[in-house]
Amino acid sequence: MNIGLDVMGGDFAPLEAIKGVRRFFENHPDTAVHLTLVGDTEKVQPHLSLVDTWKDKYTFVHATQIIEMDEHPTKAFKEKPDSSIAVGFGLLARKKIDAFIGAGNTGAMLVGAMYSVKTIEGVLRPTIASFVPRENGSFNLLLDVGINADCKPEHLVQFAQLGTMYMERVMGMSRPRVSLLNIGEEEGKGNILAQATYPMLQQATHINFIGNTEGRDIFLDKADIFVCEGFVGNIILKMAESVYHIFKEQRGVQDDFLDQFNYELYGGTPILGINAAVMIGHGISSALAFENMIVNVERIVQTELISAMQQEFTS
Q1: Is residue 315 scored above 80 in pLDDT?
Q2: Which of 109, 196, 217, 242 has the smallest set of CB atoms within 10 Å of its CB?
C-alpha cells in the first residue's frame, strides 16, 4: 500500500508532518505501508534526518509550490499545478498512490478531490464526516460537517448511506443506527428540510434509521450516525473544539471524556463519496494527528471501502 502525504500542509509544516511520519514508523514497525511524501525539497530536507532509519519505507516527490491557507481554493489549485496538493492529487489520479492525506488548505483539498479523482457515479454530493466522542468512551459519526451548507433531502439520505458504509466496513460496526439531527424527537419536527428528509430515511432499506435525535444526544449512545446539513454540522464541530480548548487548554481541567475531544486522536476527516481514499487534517495538526491520519486512511484502503461504495451506488 502506498499512501501520499502532503508534508507542506498545516500551520507547523513540514516539521510536524515529518515527525508524524516518524511516529507512524516507530509505532508500527511491521507495517507494509510505503509513504510518498510530497513537498518542497529545500524546506523539507533539513527535517528528513528524523526518518533516516526508514529510508526504504518512503519516497520523496518534489513540488515547487505551496497553496497557502488563505488562498482561494479553486483559483490556487488551477494556478499552482506544481503545488504539493496538486502534485499529490495527480499521483492519486494516476494511481501511483492508493490514498492521499494532508492538513493544508481544506478547500483546495476538496477541489483537488473533485477535479482529480471525481465523485463516485451515482453520488450526488461527497460529504465529510467527523467523529464525536461519547461519554462512554466510544464515538459517534457526524456528517456533513462543512462542505454542503445547503442540502436537499436526497443529499441527507445519501450521507446516511455513506456514513453507514464507513462505520460498517472501516469501523467494523454491524447495522449502525442512523438518526436525523433535529430540534425534537417527534416525526414532523424541524424545518422544511428535516420534515422532507424524515420519510425518505424511513423508506431507505439500506440504512438502520431510528428517527430524530436532538443536539443533547450527540455525546450519548442513542445513535451511531447523526445526519445533518453541513451548516449545522460545522457549527457543532467548531463548538466542540471550543469546549475542549476552553476547559482543557485554558482552565486545565483533567477529565477522560474531555480528553476524547482532542481532534488529534482521530487524525483527520475522510471525504466520503469520491473515487479514492482522501483524508483532510486540521490546520494545526501536530505529529500525533499526522500519525493517526496515516493509520485511519490505511484502514479505509484495507477494507476496500471505495470499491464497495462504487458498487453500491452504481448497481
Answers
A1: no
A2: 242
Class of domain 124-267: alpha beta
pLDDT for position 283 = 83
Please choose, from the candidates 189, 169, 190, 168, the residue with its C-alpha nearest in 3D space to the C-alpha of residue 177.
Answer: 168
**pLDDT at residue 211 above 80?**
yes
CATH class, 1-123+273-315 region: alpha beta
Lowest-confidence region among 130-139, 202-211, 292-301:
130-139
Are both 1-123+273-315 and 124-267 of the same fold?
A: yes
pLDDT for 139 equals: 93
Three cell numbers written together for 248: 482543557
Over range 262-273, report the average pLDDT: 87
* Residue spans per domain, the chain: 1-123+273-315, 124-267
SS3 225: strand
Distance CA(177)–CA(5), nearest Å, equals 33
Global pTM? 0.92
C-alpha to C-alpha distance for 311 and 11, rounded to whole angstroms: 38
- From residue 88, alpha-carbon distances to 52, 61, 96, 311 in Å are 22, 9, 9, 26
Contact 133, 139 (CB under 8 A): yes
